[in-house]
Design brief:
CATH superfamily of the largest domain: K homology (KH) domain
Strand content: 25-35%
Structural class: alpha+beta
Radius of gyration: 18 Å
Order of helices and strands: EEEHEEHH
Low-confidence stretches: none
Largest sheet: 3 strands, antiparallel
Shape: globular
Number of strands: 5
């Protein structure tokens, strides 16, 4: 199993977080209405962007390998929170637009491939999070 790592560090700005790996720097924040600065995507938007990017990349790679006439991909995502008593229900909606002279069979296959992207698998499978405090 390959380990990936990201570091999230708070800043002096309320609720702003700087995210880094070995090569990149990005950030997350919350809207001003929630006490943040609204300077960057929220954690939920980052989650959706991971799924959107993975979907687009996976479909494009497959289409290229199979020499399908896919010219572009657009993935629109939204997240719906629903409270059911003390439990929270989360639903992600993903609308995929495939552009190009694709047959119905190719479009159906690309939808299957989208549903097999690694982040889709992570989000729809069982996830274990091991948390520890470090000095």
């Amino acid at each position: 199993m390959k380990e990936l790592s990201v570091r999230a560090s708070s800043t002096s700005a309320a609720f702003q977080v700087i995210l880094t790996d070995d090569q990149h720097h990005w950030s997350s924040d919350v809207p001003e209405a929630l006490g943040g600065g609204g300077t960057a995507p929220t954690p939920h938007q980052l989650l959706l962007s991971s799924l959107g990017a993975c979907t687009s990349i996976t479909v494009a790679m497959y289409a290229q390998r199979k020499e399908m006439p896919l010219t572009s991909i657009e993935v629109n995502l939204s997240i719906l929170h629903e409270r059911l008593g003390n439990d929270a229900q989360l639903q992600i909606s993903r609308d995929i637009r495939l552009c190009g002279s694709l047959s119905d069979e190719q479009r159906a296959r690309l939808l299957d491939i989208a549903n097999a992207c690694p982040i889709h698998k992570v989000l729809s499978g069982e996830i274990t999070i091991a948390s520890t405090l470090i000095e």
